[in-house]
Amino acid sequence: xxxxxxxxxxxxxxxxxxxxxxxxxxxxxxxxxxxxxxxxxxxxxxxxxxxxxxxxxxxxxxxxxxxxxxxxxxxxxxxxxxxxxxxxxxxxxxxxxxxxxxxxxxxxxxxxxxxxxxxxxxxxxxxxxxxxxxxxxxxxxxxxxxxxxxxxxxxxxxxxxxxxxx
Length: 166
Ligand SMILES: [Zn+2]
Hints:
Layout: E1 12-15, E2 21-24, E3 27-31, E4 38-41, H1 51-80, H2 86-93, H3 99-104, H4 112-121, H5 125-136, H6 147-165
The structure holds zinc ion (ZN).
Zinc ion (ZN) is lined by residues 5, 7-8, 10, 41, 43-44, 46.
């Protein structure tokens, strides 16, 4: 590790700091652990990443990247399954049975593509899935309402019926 900054002559020291971000593959703004020491010039702030620091940084950013993908998928799925069953979602997306549950539990790390796809689907699940099936010749499904919602619909119909009868 160098100890003198070639840019300004300031002292370079292993520095841990909060609020730093970095990039991994196609995602930027990934948090760098506050306790990860990076040789940094105390005067001008220039970072001097040596091999060992580089390896630690790469590993930390990869972990943050994977966590970003898992979190995005989890949030999107939680929203999607309010109107589409997990089973329908899996069939429509061609995913293995049970995979959506694993994503929801954070037990699997989705690809960037799948996470991004789920994020977009969550904006209008039924409409997007129908558009996709139409464009791709996808499997036609009933897109039954999830169990909780079917019950809610039944109750609503019953209540409406009761009002009409009264
Ligand atoms: Zn400097």
